[in-house]
Amino acid sequence: MANAASAPCTDGLPAVDVAANLATVQAQVQQAARDSGRDADEITLIAVSKGHPAHRILPALSAGHGAFGENRVQEAGEKWPALRSDWPGVALHYIGALQTNKARDAVAISDAIHAIDRPRLADALAREMERQGRRPACFIQVNTGAEPQKAGVLPENLDALVARCRDDLALPVVGLMCIPPAAEEPAPHFALLRDLVARHGFECLSMGMSADYRVAIALGATHVRIGTAIFGTRPTR
């Protein structure tokens, strides 16, 4: 197993103390939960390692963290098989937009998929789950800000997509996910997602990133997706 403490920095970015950042974020998540009268054990901190090379992830793995997020199937497939050979209990969350032709790989490598936003993708995932005998947990992504450039089903179309996923395809949908518009206050979007989750009887809300996860926790987030605050700036592609 690689020695994370001495892993060289070869990505050209400023050095980042990933383990210390992770500990800080974990403490802040716990405090936000206490401030909201919640149990911190209800909240899964997804360390978003997208765009970062494997050596940058090692300190978080060595610290015992167990949930990570990626947004490109090919990148996840290149990094995580080797990492999981040393840390087999780690859960990998796919959090990016997903093309239907990548459904096979996403099902093969992911423990959770936070990306369902249209019937064709739901159909493709259902076929792959049947074929592979794997059933990663699924989240439906909701475009709460109706942003044309962003993935996600519009709130007014959610009922039909939930019915397709849950009733017709029997997908293991556990909750909803959103990314609020960058220029707007996140709280109304998180509150909307919370209400939609309650209406459909789901248990999980995937919402909140580095800049707004405290707000998300206050409004019921069960999964927060934190990248920059842990790993620093992503390398330029």
Number of strands: 8
**Alpha-carbon distance between the two ends:** 28 Å
Radius of gyration: 17 Å
Strand content range? 5-15%
The biggest sheet amounts to: 8 strands, parallel
Mean pLDDT: 93
C-alpha geometry:
globular
Helix content: 40-55%
Spatial order of the strands forming the largest sheet? 7-6-5-4-3-2-1-8
| Category from helices, strands and their pairing | alpha/beta
Helix/strand order: HEHEHEHEHEHEHEHEH
Model regions low in confidence, pLDDT < 50 over at least 5 residues: 1-9
Q: What's the assembly state of these chains?
A: single chain
Number of helices: 9
Tags for this model:
8-stranded parallel beta sheet, disordered N terminus, alpha/beta, 237 residues
Task: Walk me through this protein's architecture.
With 237 residues, the chain is of the alpha/beta class. It is 41% helix and 15% strand. It contains nine helices and eight strands. An eight-stranded parallel sheet has the order 7-6-5-4-3-2-1-8. Helix 4 packs across helix 5. The two termini are 28 Å apart. The N terminus is likely disordered.
